[in-house]
Amino acid sequence: MASSLRLPEPAELKGLWQLSDGNQVCSIELTDTRLPEGAIWALKGDSCLTELMGNPVEGWRPTPDGITLTDDDGNSLAFFGHESEQWVAYLVDGRELVMTFSGTHSVTK
């Protein structure tokens, strides 16, 4: 019998996260505040995140098997699959990005 993965609620994933490429570490906050696009939630970060990703990251959305970071229109910029205690994205340029949960206090944008 096949089983399907459960879609997590944004409240289950919101909070402070660390995002790293092995050299640079950025602090981001996944919020449960919906963006006008409707299917994505606001993400707070700083210029570190834009430098790391190569594009401005404005939002995120949960998926049954991971977390997708998006631009402000909801277009996917990176998909992070859940691996043990971390979430990993493999980018087309060969880089590996790792997200780890670090708490529930907010950061400023």
Automatic annotation (TrEMBL):
Source taxonomy: Bacteria, Pseudomonadati, Pseudomonadota, Gammaproteobacteria, Enterobacterales
A cellular component term, taken from the record's GO annotations: periplasmic space
GO molecular function, one term: metalloendopeptidase inhibitor activity
Domain called Alkaline proteinase inhibitor/ Outer membrane lipoprotein Omp19: residue spans: 8-99
Subcellular location as annotated: Periplasm
Swiss-Prot/TrEMBL keywords: Metalloenzyme inhibitor, Metalloprotease inhibitor, Periplasm, Protease inhibitor, Signal
Protein name, entry field: Protease inhibitor Inh/omp19 family protein
Organism listed in the record: Xenorhabdus bovienii
Tagged with keyword Signal: yes
Family: Belongs to the protease inhibitor I38 family.
